[in-house]
Known about the structure:
Layout: H1 2-20, H2 32-65, H3 69-77, H4 84-88, H5 92-116, E1 119-128, E2 131-135, E3 146-148, E4 155-158, H6 162-170, E5 174-175, E6 184-210, E7 220-230, E8 236-248, E9 253-276, E10 278-281, E11 291-294, H7 312-324, E12 326-333, E13 338-342, H8 347-351, H9 374-393, E14 398-414, H10 416-437, H11 451-457, H12 471-477, H13 499-502
Antiparallel strand pairs: 1-14, 2-14, 3-4, 5-10, 6-9, 6-14, 7-8, 7-12, 8-9, 9-10, 9-11, 12-13
Amino acid sequence: MSLVGMAACLVASAVVVGVSYNQSVALWPVRPPVLLAVFSAASGILYSSALNAGIAVRFWLNAYRGTRLSELHYIWDHGRGISLISTVRGGSRARKVTLLASVGYVAQFAAGPILQRSTFQTLRDRTTFPTMSIDITRRFADGWFGDRYEANSGLYEYRHGLPQLQQWWHRDAITTRNESGYACWDGKCDGLVPGAGFAHDCWTTTERVNLGTNGERDVSVLSVTLWVAQNKTDQPFLRLRTRYLSDVDRGCMGTVQAETCYITAATVEYPITIQNTTVSLRDDPLLNMRVLSTYYSHGDNPDLPKGVAAGPLLSLRNFVLPVLAENATRVLDATFNRSSYGAFGSLADIFFVPEANNTDPSPSTCRLKFTSPTEYALRVMYQFMFRFALAAGSGVQTEKFDTEKISPTLVYRVDAHYLAVGLAALGCSIAFVAALMWNWWLLGRHVTLSPLETSAALGMPVLPHNPHASLHEILREARDLRSGVGSLHQSPRGTVEAEIEKC
């Protein structure tokens, strides 16, 4: 039974480690290392029991086959304590028992800490797909931002939008409700939410400019303009136009890239991330958002008079124009014969390519280069519109959307090398103690190393004279016999009983 119990502990240890693999730590009220410690302790107790039985089997098998009494003693002792060397010298049978018992002890002892190392905790991203909600509007009503100040100009009476402008400048975090289904706790939730925005259609043209000393003086090297216009069917749109000097050759002939975007009001799918109660736009897919529908607002008509409710495109232009408007021109310093640029905003500084990074072969008299500000301008406009859409939908309109939630979760992982070595050590201890028990069936009965059983087998006069008597039989016949050693035990008549010494 002890061998079966040890085998069960081995299987249970393997099952615990295997089942816990990749499972959340929170799912285990009793941790796998604790269970492994319990199984290891139980296996150690069972090993001691099995070893005692195995030593008894080897003792009696050798006793019946005939051997020296000293070798029987060393088999019984099996190298415990300081008698290891004497036991090894006691004969081949004693050495075999000592080797199996000692190696089994070591294997049993080592299996516990090795199996402890086979399981460990680590962080892993767990993915779920919850449905969440957010307050956002799909379309702006005319006049939500305010009324027109003048035709194709600013706003008169800022009803809404100014707080979002201030928050954008301050880089304030966007927050959602601190409620279940709105906030994303213990991770981050990515999703696409429909909201009021715009659709854009852009194209690029190029032109050549002369930046030589005999060329144009006030050449525009970077500019951004925004205005509201109408298409051929009198539908209003916002026109974004950017121009930038992209390269200059050795002859000071420069290439100006002109990028034009037509912008119409639309409902788009914003790529957002919610973490706790903080909402943010994901930057990478922002310019490739899916457009669900477009619409035209009467309030965006550029010819309407002062006081009319303003539409979303005119309002967007009013808010972003101070951020994006720029017109940087080339400036030639005659003293040092070098080119620079003059601008009234900071946009030119953001997109200027420093001389150390400018690989163009142009001379210092015309060495200027810029990168495109178009994507930046569109991103800024989307950021404004997203903040406006959230403000307009707050407490009024709620959208539900599917998300992908990624949660860092503490899980159990397995070190297969430690697991294999630990299970092998347990298996070795089982095999070694089983080797000691081998041929137990030849004895025909259960044997122990009880002093009574061994004394009876060796012919102690006061015990039954059947050398094959079992311990149960010996105890039944010798239940009332008394023993004494030296003067430590006195009989009721005051004499010293020393039957065991007589033997």
